[in-house]
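Assess this today:

___
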Amino acid sequence: MALNDDPFEPGIVGVIPPTLVTLKQSTLTQADVGKALKVTANKTVGLAANNDVPFGQLSSVESGIAAVKVAGVLEFEYSGTAPTLGLITVQSDAAGKLKVAASGLSVRVISVDTSASKFTFIL
């Protein structure tokens, strides 16, 4: 095992495996991978709209099916004010990114990359 293969080495995945659920979809494409999703109907997801509370992040998409990351360590692009480390609340924006908000989904931020407008959090 190489040093960089150490499961306890700090990294984006760490030792918290992602939780994925497979749901129906009809409008998502490969270009939407990584964006925030919402539940649009029974067992069906679509892109989250501005100010929606995100359900999860699109991990992969195939015809009629979406794999959605709903727990674990997630990395998202953000818009607006940079998130702060620790417990914050987020909502989606109109582009599938997340933004800091007064109400919404509570997440625990562990990393912020202001040069790439990305942040990593535990959900």
Notes: The chain has no helices and ten strands. The chain has a mean pLDDT of 91. The radius of gyration is 15 Å. Strands lie at 19-24, 36-41, 44-47, 56-62, 65-71, 73-77, 86-92, 98-100, 105-113, 118-122.
